[in-house]
Amino acid sequence: MIPDDPVLTVRGLRKSFTLHTIDGRTSVSLHGVDLDVAAGEHVAVAGPSGAGKSSLLRCVQRSYLPDAGSVVLHADGGPVELTALPDRALARLRGRALGYVSQFLAAPPRTGPLEVVATAARRRGLDRAEAREAAGDALHRLGLDEALWDVDCGVLSGGERQRVNLAAGTVRPPRLLLLDEPVSALDPANRERALELIGSLSGQGVAVLAVFHDLDAMRRLATRVVEMAGGRIARVGSPAEVLGAAA
Domain 1-85+207-247, what fold? Predict the structure, then answer.
């Protein structure tokens, strides 16, 4: 069933890879996936390694181009078919309405956390002064020491880089946010800050599609869990229905 306020509509999504380093065989990652995500909804994607979870996120973000199917983002100007969008138009849309937070930060050389996050805020419509203020607020909220704000991101620890990545993804949040293991490198205190931030997005009307291996995080954040197996959606339901009760 299509939600009343859809932000993302995925239909018949298929993706395969040719294994050139082995013998040229084809590995199918997604077999005709259908999925909807509504405004203010947090959909967590569960399943074992190789189930197709990250492939789904990357096809939505279009770092992977699917073999077949449609990925529609219902943006402010109307529905946009992401699989057919020219690269420049896609880049503009990613800046404004579509965010992606991976486990790893890709920052330009000699660029500090404040500038990385402020650049993301400017892409989402803030002027330079507003963007720096919003970036500082985001970094404070995630507990990144101000002494690190102008340090080259390349010398930060894995957990610090992950917090910068999350701050950039959530500053003036986009309409759709994709999360791929965004708290995997965080210690308990910073994990708690990050989960509180992610949890606040639903109240702002942000649609979240997230991959976590952390069952506690899924139980805490998800309004719906999609369980994948073998590149297909195997089950959909509440966290309690799909994941079971917490131990």
Answer: Rossmann fold (3.40.50)
